C-alpha cells in the first residue's frame, strides 16, 4: 500500500493507523508530495509503479461565490479534481488491463448529482471527471478493471467544516445554525462517519465488486431526493 499526501505529519499518522489495523511496517509506504503536480505524480508512481487498486482523493477547492473566482482558480480546481485523476488513471490502467485485475475509485462529491451553490469550482471540475469515467469504464471492465466514483454527502471531516463555514458566511448566520440547517435536510438525521465511507470504498476495491463499473455511488444519508 502506498499513500500520498502533502503533509508529512498527517501522512505518517495515517500510516500508523493502518499498521495498527494489521498492515506490517513494510506494507505501508508513504510519499510526501503534491499529487496535483507532475513531480508529485512521478514520486507516487516511482513508489508504486504497478498498483492493482487506485483511489483518487484530491482535496476539494474552497467554497465561495463564483464572482470572486479568477481563471487561475478555475484552472487549479480542474487540474486537481479532474486532470490529476485522469493522469493517474492513464499511468496505471494499462498495467491493470495486462494483469487482468484493477479497481479504480474516484472520490468526487454528492454535489455532482445535486450541486451546492458555494461549491461551483468542485461541481464543475468533478462533473468533468464523472463524464470521462463514464466512457472509459465501459472499455476496461472486459479486462476485469472497474472504474467507479464515490459521491460523499456530509461526513464529519475538515472539508465539511469548511463547507459549512462558507455557507454560514454567505447566509450571514452562525456556523452552528448552518450545520443544523444542513443536518435537517438529511433523512438519516446526522452527518456521516468516515468509517462508513471507508468500508464502501474498500468493497468497491474488492474482487467481489467486479460486475460494477462506471457507477456513481452516493453516500449521503438519503439527502438526494431523486430516484436515479
UniProtKB/TrEMBL annotation:
* Name this protein carries in UniProt: 3-oxoacyl-[acyl-carrier protein] reductase
The family annotation for this protein states:
Belongs to the short-chain dehydrogenases/reductases (SDR) family.
Q: Name one Pfam family in it.
A: adh_short_C2
Q: Note the InterPro entries from the entry.
A: NAD(P)-bd_dom_sf, SDR, SDR_fam
Highest rank taxon of the organism: Bacteria
